[in-house]
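Notebook, p. 212. Picked up where the previous page left off. The plan for this session was modest: take the two constructs that came back from the sequencing core last week, fold each one, and keep the raw output in the notebook itself so nobody has to go hunting through shared drives later. Recording the first one now, exactly as returned: residue sequence, then the structure token string.
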Amino acid sequence: METGKKIAQTLLQIKAIKLSPANPFTWASGWRSPIYCDNRKTLSYPAARKEIYRAFAALIAEKYPQTEVIAGVATGAIACGVLAAEELGKPFIYVRSAPKDHGMANQVEGYFEPGAKVVVVEDLISTGGSSLKAVEALRAAGCEVLGMVAIFTYGFPTAAANFEKAGVELNTLSNYSTLIELAAEQNYIAPEDMATLREWRKAPDTWGR
């Protein structure tokens, strides 16, 4: 089974991703959604944890062989990022959502040389807003960002546009289209739910209202 399907299957099995088209979830943003993703759950399952950090390491080695430093986005991607860095034998740093309000007022934590070639690790991509703020912080700190890798993306068109505008290449271990196809194949959802799941992704900000 290809990596995307294997990761999707793992996320479904451990309930890191839940699908509920009939009784949608409400996100913090207020959006109604038939899917909820909490990739932090992968840290509680050793086999899933290992599958993800090894997949990250293989992806980074393939796509970005010139990588010098791995950067995790706080807080969700710190653990999987440091494990991938350990697998690759690379230094690790992480990026806060905002600079500290005391001490050195750092937003990027850890040691790196000016001009360091960095790959950013993220757990989940929705619109890409918070992830790309981490890229901005790394660039402002003097790093060269080669690209970003993430466990999962919803594949929103707005995210693709945001990454393109920022000049950041995104590679993910799995994605929404792969997930819902697998969920249908393995009876996590009914066949008639597929239309609902596809429709949601087209306009998630207005769906269900």
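Okay, moving on. Second construct, recorded in the same format:
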Amino acid sequence: MANTDSSSAFSSAPVLLGVDLGTNHIRLGTIDRSGKVLAFRREHYPEGSLTDARSLASQLVSAVSQMIEEQTATAPVAAVGVGIPGLVLQPSQRAASVPHLPDLSKLDLQSELAGKFGVPVYFDNNANAAAIAEMTCGIARGVNDFLYLHIGSNVSAGIVLGGKLQRGKSGLAGDIGQMNIYAEHLGGFVRLESMVSAENIVRRTRDRLQRDRTSSLSRLGAMGGFSYDDIIEQAHRGDDLAKLMLQRTGAFIALALADVISLLNLEMIAVGGAPAGRPLLVSAIEEESRQRSSAEAFADCRIVAAEIGAEATVIGAALLAAHLR
């Protein structure tokens, strides 16, 4: 787990500011160059930020400005990194696709923030940022060939080969959520994200409850609905349907990952997303991948739960802004 310290007792050395532009709220944190979190907080979006790109950009600028002002007296900010739940084109630094937020593709947020704050600003995908965090101060320290899998509102992967983050020609590498998998019960190919993102896990579980009303999730549904976190909690409590839905989610993920394991001969896959759900997904991904990957490649690859929690993208985005990787 990353070393965190929410106190304001900073050294006078410059620090880095990381931002995770999530789909429900913004996470912000200051970190030192080793990846240690010095301060961390969340901000909820006002209603307008989720419907209008300019309003979202304004909130981002305001949140960063406030964080910089709070820290400057004791720890001047040297660089700002922003992770988004979507694709970022390289080297233009423009958002190409952010499915669950307003369309940011027409805004040059990198130039806007750099001009306002006078420090280097860097944008990247949230899974890429989290991969760098795990590589610097998490479970992937010392691992040169691994994949970080993010499961949340979006589904994406950060790929590290030979110790370096791989972005592809335009920055689109790792968009595993858009890979097609064959869903036998649907009789055809579907996008992985349409089955295993947080909202789609909830959707599949609701559909299943039409046939199975013995689950504790039925009671939650009758009381106003349930979330992905609720499914995870009930699975840990032994609810058979909740466990089944997460097991099937892991199996769907393995349909995409198994060939990646064979193709890239990875040393590790670190499964991110909701921390409490990671161990449940790991066992299901491992079981299905063992059957679908080449035996030799699978033997080389450890499938593990990522160590760093909600601050992973914040840490990695800040490190990327400092060009430490």
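Notes on construct two before I forget. Residues 1-11 have pLDDT under 50 and may be disordered.
Flagging for discussion at group meeting.
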